[in-house]
Amino acid sequence: MAFLRFILIFILITLLLRLIGRFFFVRLMKNWQSKMGGQFNQPQERPKGEVTIENKKAAKNGTKSSEKPGEYIDYEEIK
Questions:
Q1: Which end of the chain is more exposed for a tag (fewer CB within 10 A), N or C?
Q2: What is the pTM (predicted TM-score) of this model?
Q3: For residue 32, what are the domain limits?
Q4: How many Å apart are CA 59 and CA 5, to the nearest integer?
């Protein structure tokens, strides 16, 4: 009987901690987001004259552009 009582109390405490933790975590994240929100929405400022090239196709596929085969050219041997 004591074992069943222990299991019941353990389950109730676990459920209460999950509910309290969920509420606390949401409030904590909202507070953190309001403090840090302005930093993430602004684009990064780069020094004047700096050039950056980003290849979106290579980033999506996870392959480098140099790995793609080029055009096939048929050469004729000249003697």
A1: C
A2: 0.39
A3: 1-38
A4: 56
Q: What is the pLDDT along the chain (79 residues), one digit of tens a residue?
A: 899 999 999 999 999 999 999 989 989 888 888 887 766 656 667 778 777 777 776 545 555 555 566 787 788 888 7
**Is the CB of residue 20 less than 8 Å from the CB of residue 28?**
no
How many separate domains does the chain show? 1
Look-up of token digits 């950056």: 52
